Amino acid sequence: MTNQKPTVLFVCVHNAGRSQMAAGYLRHLARGRIDVFSAGSEPADQINAVAVAAMAEDGIDIAGVQPRILTVDAVRTADVVITMGCGDACPIFPGKRYEDWDLADPAGLPLEQVRPIRDDIKAHIETLVSEML
């Protein structure tokens, strides 16, 4: 029996909105029981300010995170890889759990349109946490 925590990697193109919101929710809801990472196939220079605002409304602070580039090692070390519109950019390794969440991209949208995306992500995360823990 191992005490190793499961690891989840969230991947989207820019790693500035959806994947960062998902990572923020999972960190919060898993309370340290799951290691959480996020990355992008073409990371943006900074996180989406509207995504930060939407998460802050729900008490989750993602303001200090930076978009990161997706690496083969990140995928290799993850137990669960969740993609969000990154197409074929994510390498596939046998034995990993892969999910593709069909979520709208919040880039360029006003806060009123990002809130439902945030809420959809939260619902996905709540299901994920109940399955993993």
UniProtKB/TrEMBL annotation:
**Under which EC number(s) is this enzyme classified?**
1.20.4.1
> Which Pfam family is an annotated match for this chain, by its short name?
LMWPc
Q: Which EC class is this protein assigned?
A: oxidoreductase
GO MF annotations in UniProt: arsenate reductase (glutaredoxin) activity
List residues of the Phosphotyrosine protein phosphatase I domain. 6-131
Give the protein's recorded name: Arsenate reductase
Q: What GO biological process terms does the UniProt entry carry, in alphabetical order?
A: response to arsenic-containing substance
> Is the keyword Oxidoreductase assigned to this protein?
yes
Q: Which SUPFAM superfamilies match?
A: Phosphotyrosine protein phosphatases I (SSF52788)
Organism of origin: Curtobacterium pusillum
Which domain of life, per UniProt? Bacteria
Kindly indicate whether the keyword RNA-binding belongs to this entry.
no
Please name the InterPro entries in this protein's record: Ptyr_pPase, Ptyr_pPase_sf
Which keywords does this Swiss-Prot/TrEMBL entry list? Answer: Arsenical resistance, Oxidoreductase
